[in-house]
Each structure stands twice: as structure tokens, then as C-alpha cells.
Amino acid sequence: MYDIYGLGNALVDTEYLVKDSFLRTHGIDKGHMTLVEEEVIYNLSLALDGHEPKRISGGSAANSMYAAQGFGARTFYSCKVAHDEVGEHFLADLSGAGVAVNGNARGDDGVSGRCLILVTPDAERSMNTFLGISTQLSVADIDEGALATSGYYYVEGYLSSNESSLAAAVACRELAERNGVKTCVSLSDPSMVTFFRDGLENILGNGVDQLFCNEEEALAWAGTDRLDIALAELKDIARTCNVTLGAKGSLCISNGEQKQVPGTPVKAVDTNGAGDIYAGAYLALVAQGADPVDATRFANYAASQLVTFVGARLHTVEDYATLKKGFKA
Fold first, then answer.
1. Does CATH number 3.40.1190.20 belong to domain 2-10+58-113+132-320?
2. Considering the entire predicted model, what is its pTM?
């Protein structure tokens, strides 16, 4: 029924352009994702009064499913939102793009999750995330029929931070394994590797089909400053592994062969969502029959186009199809 079944948090992003001094003043860890309480989001919003915000639905795996759908894949997403304006905005964005969503996505109480993203002049993004009702994402939110009839199961490493969502991620992997569905995992952020490694190890189980991470996450996972050592360890985790290297492109390690695929030179404005569109682009193409290296080339290109403007997604779902048509392999 579906090419890719995604599981992850449901967040609505509010993005601001700020100077590095703002991060220092408010003690924000630059370039990382930090889990915060709703009060922190409120106080930061007050401090940002006068800055022009940009609001768009987000959540790492949700961004990837949105992209994959736009690139021609059939996708499903399991998540949890509240009966509030933020949650309705999130669901409307996904359904408008054609992404199917679990029927019980709306919870009975609580507030929907949101993320305040601060982008500095060097295009680096620092995320302050209040998960809200997303912490209630559970095994009950799994659509077993949709997952069992999908080609790939994709999960964000952010779910390792919460007991309920972690249980759902592990249950999905186990169901995928029983039904021959390929499991794909993103490490998501260095903070997940540092503070929630046990949860990530549970999500990965005895190994997965596909792993996505960036260089910093790879080094953190292996506890080293040498990428070759980190790659050797990642090869034991996943049959295929993609490691993004920023402007240098990315590494694709598949069937024992390692290839560095160069990136597309651009002037980056905002790196928020680059890893998400990369994963969505890669999975959409392999689901449509591309080999891993060709899919990596397209993923590099898609990420390079996204970072040239502010926001974690392209403006419309149709823009993804246009981007794909303009790609020269």
C-alpha cells in the first residue's frame, strides 16, 4: 500500500533569524536540538518580539515523509497532536500533500508540540523543542496494516528521548522485521546520541537496513574524532549507511563499498531541515528503484536546494516534483 511508513513527532516550527549574541544571552546550545518546557518557548518568543517569524509544520520524520511524497513516493505517517489550532495546522499540511496519517492522531487533551528555531548568519540552526502531546505517541498509534504493507519503515532518533514513543519505535521495528519491511533510522541530533544512546540502541536492535546521520553524530556515536573509525562502527549497525558532510556532500556505504558523493555548491542561508529532505529524497528514489549511489546524488542535490532559503520545507509539495524534474544526475 505504501512505499514508506514514517513514525515521529508532530511539531509546528516557528523560525527566527538572529545573531549569535542572542544565543549567548539566552544560553542556547548552538547547532543542537534542546528539549525545553513550554514556558521556555513562551519566554524566548517574548524576547524575540520585533523579529519576523516564519511558521511551518515540522518534525524531522514528518519533513522527510512530506518530501518523499512530493518526490513521488506513497507515504504514511503516525504521530500525535492535540485538538488545537497548532495540531490542525500540522495535520492539514500533511493531508494536503497527500501523506496518509493514523486515524487516532488527535489526542483528547494536552497541547500540540512546537519548536522554536533560531538561525544565525552562518546558516546554522539551534532548535528549542517543546514536545507537548507528542510525548504520548504510543504503540496504540501504530497502524499495523499500513506498516506491514509498506516497503520501508522510517523513524527519527528523537523518539529515543521518551519512554512511550521509544516503545512505539521499537514495536514498529519488530513488526517491520516480521513482515519483511526494511527499517531505516536517523540518529537525528548529537544530543540524542549523547543523552539518549540507550534508547537509540533499542530502536536499532540487532541492526537495521538503513542508517542516516551527519558527521558530528557519527563521531559522537563512536566516541572518536576520526571518521574512519566511526564508519567502521556504523557498518556494523546498518547494511547501508549515509553520512552527510555538509557542503562536501555525503558518504554512501552499501554492500561493503564506500563512495563519497560530492555536493552541489550553493550559498547556504538556513540548514534547518537539510537532513530531513536528504532522507526523504533518498528513500523516495530507492523506493522507486534507484541504486544507493544515484539516490545519494539526488539527496545531496535536494538538500542543497533547500538550504538556499529559510525554512525546513520547500514552499509547496509541487515544488518537490519540480526540483526532481530539474535534477541532472
1. yes
2. 0.93
